[in-house]
Amino acid sequence: MNEVSPELTRQVLHSAMHQKVLLRAAELVNLGWTRGTAARPADSQKIRSTSPQATAWCVGGAGPGAAEPRCL
After folding, report:
1. CA-CA-CA-CA torsion for 55, 24, 48, 59, nearest 10 degrees?
2. Contact between residue 68 and residue 50 where contact means Cβ atoms under 8 Å apart
3. Residue ranges of the domains in the chain?
4. Chain segment 11-66, per-residue pLDDT in tens
5. 15 to each of 11, 18, 19, 37, 42, how far by Cα in Å?
6. Which tens digit of pLDDT belongs to each residue from 51-61?
7. Which pTM was predicted?
8. DSSP string of 17-66?
9. Is 1 helix (H, G, I), strand (E, B) or coil?
10. CB–CB of 49/57 below 8 Å?
11. For residues 27 and 52, what is the distance between their CA atoms, to the nearest angstrom?
12. How far apart, in whole angstroms, are the C-alpha atoms of residue 66 and residue 50?
């Protein structure tokens, strides 16, 4: 009777991963903030938030940028 359902385990693991991504997104925005594009490199051009050259992120771009395996 003390067995945890697979669905409950999945929900807990996803919740922990979501929290990790959101915390990393906040860190990315803290490193550098931009608007008008998902992200920018050091030369201020518009790039994808998942680009390794990104040095500044908008709030919307920080989530996908933080979900990249290199960021976690």
Report:
1. -90
2. yes
3. 6-71
4. 666 788 888 889 999 999 999 999 999 999 999 999 999 999 999 999 999 988 88
5. 6, 5, 6, 28, 33
6. 999 999 999 99
7. 0.70
8. HHHHHHHHHHHHHHH-B--SSSEE-TT---B-TT-TT--EE-HHHHHHHH
9. coil
10. yes
11. 15
12. 8
